[in-house]
Amino acid sequence: QVQVKESGGGLVEVGDSLRLSCAASGRSFNRYSMGWFRQIPGKEYEFVAAISWTGSSAYYGDSLEGRFTVSRDNDNHIVYLQMNDLKPEDAAVYYCAARGAAGYGASVLERRESYDYWGQGTQVTVSA
Questions:
Q1: In angstroms, rounded to a whole number, what is the distance separating the alpha carbons of residues 15 and 25?
Q2: Alpha carbon distance 21, 17 (integer Å)
Q3: pLDDT by residue (tens digit) across 31-83?
Q4: What CA dihedral angle connects 33, 11, 89 and 82, to 10 degrees?
Q5: Is the backbone of residue 105 left (phi > 0), alpha (psi -120 to 50) or beta?
Q6: Strand spans (E) along 8-121
Q7: What is the pLDDT of residues 93-126, one digit of tens each?
Q8: How many whole angstroms from its chain centre is CA 70?
């Protein structure tokens, strides 16, 4: 069935930039809204960013818009998360998720429960 896989994480320094990728399989990728979440072990998942299936609408978590940019390449079934000016509080495991159901918007895509498929996560570590 549908598989989602993140890549691009690693160790960076404060102020660096990093681009995460999310490759998704399946014939219906172009009809999926896609989201990014992050988690520090022992903490609640945090909404990072999301993008509608057309790519015309994007949404961001609190204080992230302006530093983070989400985009998608429907021809190659890839979603990107460009992260700039990384801060220590950005260190986390980042997860990519796909929503197969119809409907989208900030109130929907910011919720974990709205997504049907999840990747295994990619670690981002930020150090001074």
A1: 33
A2: 13
A3: 889 999 999 988 999 999 999 988 889 999 998 989 999 999 988 889 999 99
A4: -30
A5: left
A6: 10-13, 18-24, 33-39, 46-51, 58-60, 68-73, 78-83, 92-99, 117-118
A7: 999 999 988 877 889 999 999 999 999 999 999 9
A8: 7
108-114 own/partner pairs: CB under 8 Å, 24+ apart: 109/33, 109/35, 109/47, 109/50, 109/59, 110/47, 110/50, 110/59, 110/61, 111/47, 112/37, 112/45, 112/47, 114/35
Q: Tokens standing for 109?
A: 């895509």
Angle value at C-alpha 58, between 47 and 83, nearest 5 degrees = 60
pLDDT higher than 90, residue 14: yes
Give the span between the Cα atoms of 70 and 83, in whole angstroms: 9
CB 42 within 8 A of CB 51: no
Q: Of 101, 105, 99, 128, which is closest to residue 22 (Cα–Cα)?
A: 99
